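Lay summary

Proteins are chains of building blocks that fold into shapes. Our project writes down both the chain and a compact code for its shape. Here are two examples, one after the other.
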Amino acid sequence: IEVLVAEFEEWSAQSSDVSVECSIVLLDSKAAEAGCDLLFLLGGEHEFRLTCPRDYPQHEEKFFCQSRSLNLWSSALNEYMLDSAHPQQLNEILTKAVQLHKGKSSRNTQADDDDDDAEDNEDEDDVDYEDEMDMADGQYDEVN
């Protein structure tokens, strides 16, 4: 456990330029049946558990991630870890976790912008439709 905590602290110090939305904080660490469980907080709001291999850092087994609030993100991180041809280090996994979350955040921001644009267009369409309805009723007053 001490090796993992020390590696996290080193990674965290080197990643100090990461935005708050993508920051990772170590909340807890404990021995587990499969190795060691590290509990993290991602972006100040999402907890995730990383199960680390028993013989870390000289290990052959894979890490495993679980998160209740970020299912797609944790699935993508698990896929990345499973697809790796070499035994991974904690810092590699944490860096990938941040990259995946940054990608998710930027996609959400873009999706929110697209939703706002769509709502604006719907509002304009509503006004046009109301204008047409008033004209069809013989009323030529413009509706605001």
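And here is the second example, written the same way.
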Amino acid sequence: TTRLVFSISMQWIEIAQDQIFDLIGPSDASRTISISRAPETGALVATGATMAPIRDFASFQEMFVRGQSNHTQAHDDFGPLKDRAASLLVLSLDWQKADSRSDRSGAEKTTRFTNQFFLGTLPASDKLAMDRNEILEAWSAS
């Protein structure tokens, strides 16, 4: 027999002013977040950032709303920092397949797969569809 087990998790970070912020975890300014590749899978990992389990649409929606509200709200001489911040939302799909052997040992052969889906925003990407005059008007208004 074959048994499949799936899990989905979410991580959302923002990079602003050369710092990495966890958008869905507890706000802890002393926590250091770094980005690297996992040696065993090659997957992109934001070490120190929350990887929240997604059980259903309601839990995804809760994390999404939390992340949206945690985007940087700070301003400096050049305007809102959120206009110059990049964010990366990672959805990770893990699944394990366990096959029971038909021999007398009864041992299971387990295979594990991980797929990651990345959704990113780039600084000022909303301005790409604007022409030069619209961009100048938007910047002078802020």
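What can we say about the second shape? The two ends are 62 Å apart (CA to CA).
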